[in-house]
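step: validate -> pass
step: tokenize input -> pass
step: predict -> running
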Amino acid sequence: MKNLFLGTIALLISLGFSTQIFAQVPTDWSDDTGILTFKEEVVVHEGSFSCGVDVTTGSQGDCDFSNLVEIPVTATETFKISFWYITSENVKIRAAMDWVGASTTYGSYGGPTTTGDWEEFTFEGTVPDGATGVNLRLRFYDIQPNFSPPETQYVDLVKFESPVGNNLIVANGDFENWGAVNPEPTNYPTDFAANSSSLNINLTWADATGAQLPNAYLILASEDPAIDPPTDGDFVIDDLDLSDGEGAANVSYGVENFTFTELTALTTYYFKIFPYTNSGPAVDYKTDGTPPSAEATTASVTVINQENFDESWGEWTTVSVLGDEVWDRDNTYGVGGTPCAKMSGYNGASFVNEDWLISPEMDFNIYNSEVFSFYTAMNYTG
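step: predict -> pass
step: emit ->
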């Protein structure tokens, strides 16, 4: 009998990988990998447009909506940030002030919206010593356990005052200015191929060429070869869990590969790839003609033990050898925003720790060519 031992000092997180989705982004703002912004013409607080935000992940560090134009400020003056918002029932918004010359200030939370209509967020404080400018940032937070992405939010009329009562210009804070919407991509990618490795299938292709290049590609996966094409204006988000026989992945132009993992043994999967421009309600898929397709069959593999730590430790055991910090389950930073196992030696300061996450006993004598795999990441990015 043998045990698998997974140990770390400091931090270990089971984590997946995000792909950048090209949204319709308002001028002077930037989106993030976990949100999808779009120009909204109906749900508007003031003016002709507001900014719609689809939150597609529970990973808060991937859900920042940032203004790119620095606002000059004077240290020790008072300040006030305000904006109007509508959130879904499982999302809240937080304002952040990224000071030039001082540390970031995080404000209070707004939402979830309780009235079903626009509500105003305000937060006041004092410009910290050393600050000469500020960039404004809005962060979207999921509320577990009922968060079900994508969930749509709306933001309008972002304002900043310093000192309080003195309005400073927030570049495109009213979301009236937007970049141009691109037409449909001219061509499909070429050389689309699928190759199986154990329970994973790796897809490769050569980027599309032509007058209008795609922003990204949508790959649809299915156990049924009859895959329906996507519809313009209906953005398809990532679905990397193919246990129901279907899945989807968005991959940026220029990457030219993607791997679906943890598939079912001895199963044939079919794939089609669709280039697109824009995103959200403005997404424009190329679906005419014959989209490239590929297929591959997974190997005959027996899963000896598998644990995603979504609900509990399962059959795994946590052991602390040194230090007060211990293994914990985190509900945010796992694959696709799911729960994961987390160990950190940081608790206000860094402390030396030795902690182990130990598998149940497994008899490898009855198997051949065993493979041990897991996702891991380190450090905190938000």
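step: describe -> The chain has three domains: 5-14+304-366, 29-168, 190-297.
step: cleanup -> pass
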